[in-house]
Design a protein that fits this description.
The structure is a homodimer of 171-residue chains. The radius of gyration of chain A is 18 Å and the shape is globular. Chain A is an alpha+beta fold. The first copy, chain A, has a 5-stranded mixed sheet, with helices on both faces. Chain A contains 6 helices and 7 strands. Chain A has one domain: Aminopeptidase. The interface between A and B is large, with 82 and 82 residues.
Chain lengths: 171, 171
C-alpha cells in the first residue's frame, strides 16, 4: 500500500481526535478520554506546542471514508542520565489498514525525528495484555524496562494531586 | 529542620550534577550517567528549557559541607486523554538529611507548580525493589499503573534507535 507520512497540521486535529478515541476503545478505557479536538488544536499548534504529531494517509482509491488512517503523537522529555529524549505517547493505525507496514513507517519516521533532534532515547508505554504491541516493539530492538529493570509508572491525578499541592508539610 | 525550597538557577548545576550521580549510585546504575554539569546548564537554563528544577537548601548551621541537600527535576508531558501533565524525573534528598520532611516539601512544591501550570497529572517512575519510595508515593495517594493497569515502560536507545531511524520500510 502506498502510504504517505507527514507532519500533522491544525486541520488534522479532527482525525487525530477520532483516532485517539478509537485507540482508547481498543485499550478498553474509552471513558478516560477528556481531550477535545479544540484542545488538541490549541495545545499542539501554537508557538511552543506541547506535542508534535505525524499522520499517515493513503491515496483516495484505497480509502474507506478516511484519507488519514494513522498517527504518531510524541513530545520531548529529559533524562538526567542521558539528556534530551523523546516519548511516543500514541502510535495508532486503523484496524482495516493494518498489515501494510503503516505502523512501522510511522515508527521509523518518529525515530528519524528523534535522531534529528539529538534525542538519546525513544520511549513509550505498552499495556501488559497487548502482546501484539509488545512483540512489535521487541522485534524492533526495544527493551522492556518494566521487565528488565523493574520500572513502575506511578501517577497522581485528580484529588491526589490536589491534596499534594495543598498539603503544608511539618518542618 | 528549617528547609527552603526554591527554583534552581544555572549556578546550582554543579550541586544538581553531584546529586544526580548520588541518586544513580543509590539506584545501582552509576555507569549510566553521561550528562555533565555543562549539559545541564545548557539544557535547563536557556530560553526554552528542556526541564525545570527545584532545590532544597538548609541553613548553614545544619549543613555538612553542603547548603543544597536535595532537588526535584521535572518537565511537561502530554496525555492524549487528559492534556498537559508533568513528569517528575528525579526527587532526591541526601541520606544524612532524610527523615526531616524535605522530600515531602519538594514533592508538595512540585505538585503546586503542576497545579499552577494546569497539569492534569503528575507522574514518575520508581524501581520495583525501592519499597521506601513506592510506599512514600502510595501513602500520598499515587496509583501504581504498572500494578493496576499493567503499564510497561519500553525504550529504544543507542543502536536500536539508530536502526529504527535508518530502516526503510517495505511498502
Amino acid at each position: 500500500m502506498n502510504v504517505n507520512i507527514r507532519p500533522a497540521t491544525r486541520v488534522d486535529c479532527k482525525d487525530i481526535s477520532r483516532m485517539i478515541m478509537e485507540l482508547a476503545v481498543y485499550e478498553k478505557m474509552p471513558d478516560q478520554v477528556k481531550i477535545t479536538c479544540e484542545e488538541l488544536e490549541r495545545d499542539g499548534f501554537h508557538q511552543n506546542p506541547f506535542f508534535e504529531c505525524l499522520v499517515a494517509e493513503v491515496p483516495e482509491e484505497n480509502k474507506d471514508d478516511f484519507t488519514t488512517v494513522g498517527f504518531a503523537l510524541y513530545f520531548y522529555i529529559y533524562s538526567t542520565w542521558k539528556g534530551r529524549s523523546m516519548h511516543l505517547e500514541d502510535l495508532y493505525v486503523m484496524p482495516q489498514f493494518r498489515g501494510f507496514g503503516i505502523g512501522k513507517s510511522l515508527l521509523n519516521a518518529v525515530a528519524q525525528v528523534a535522531k534529528e533532534k539529538r534525542c538519546a532515547r525513544l520511549q513509550l508505554n505498552v499495556l501488559d495484555w497487548n502482546t501484539a504491541s509488545r512483540d512489535f516493539y521487541a522485534a524492533k530492538g526495544a527493551q522492556d524496562l518494566t521487565v528488565e529493570e523493574g520500572r513502575h509508572l506511578v501517577r497522581f491525578d485528580g484529588q491526589s494531586l490536589e491534596n499534594l499541592a495543598n498539603e503544608t508539610p511539618k518542618n
